[in-house]
Amino acid sequence: AELGPDAQRWISSTAFFENANACMWAGIPKQVCQSGYRSAYRQHVRIAPAYRLQEDCEADFAPGECFVSGVSHLWTPWLSGFSLITHARLPPSSLHAHRQAQKAPVDRSWWQHLQGIKASPEAATR
């Protein structure tokens, strides 16, 4: 089904960061990076697998990738990082303009289409 000129379109982008500092070094505001990291860490603590033995944890992950919790004395894998997902809404007119550009006349070359020049009999003889 063809979308009308008023249809909303969304784009998204995902960026992965090892820690909050790497996020800030990429130019993301400090509070966004810290909040994203804290949220990922809280989720990691809730859902990461826990093992009684270091060897069992490292067998499922990798040697040196597990740590022991001071309270529970259980081994869990390190948090490897977090993702920030950005969503943006495109203006409705950009979709309509894109559709109109796709319906360009076939008597134009691609270069002429890019330049906005219509084919003319004089251009064909050159």
Summarize this structure as a short list of keywords or feature phrases.
6 helices, Biofilm_formation_YgiB, alpha+beta, 42% helix, elongated, 126 residues, single chain
Indicate the topology.
Layout: E1 9-17, H1 20-25, H2 30-47, H3 54-60, E2 66-68, E3 75-77, E4 82-90, H4 92-102, H5 110-115, H6 121-125
Antiparallel strand pairs: 1-4, 2-3
Account of the protein in words:
The protein has helices spanning 20-25, 30-47, 54-60, 92-102, 110-115, 121-125; strands spanning 9-17, 66-68, 75-77, 82-90. It has 126 residues and is of the alpha+beta class. The protein folds into two domains: 9-90, no CATH class; 91-126, no CATH class. A hairpin with a 6-residue loop joins β2 and β3 (75-77). The chain is elongated and about 60 Å long. InterPro entries: Biofilm_formation_YgiB (IPR009576).
Sheet with most strands: strand arrangement? 1-4
Structural class: alpha+beta
Largest sheet, strands/sense/barrel: 2 strands, antiparallel
Q: SSE order in H/E notation?
A: EHHHEEEHHH
Helix count from the secondary structure assignment? 6
**Strand share of the residues?**
15-25%
- Number of folding domains? 2
Estimate the global geometry from the Cα principal axes: elongated
Helical amount among residues, as a percent range? 40-55%
Q: pLDDT average, as an integer?
A: 80
> Gap between N and C termini, in Å?
42 Å
Which regions are unreliable across 5 or more consecutive residues at pLDDT < 50? 108-115, 117-126
Using DSSP, what is the number of strands? 4
Rg computed from alpha carbons, rounded to a whole number of angstroms? 27 Å
Multimerization state: single chain
Pfam families: DUF1190
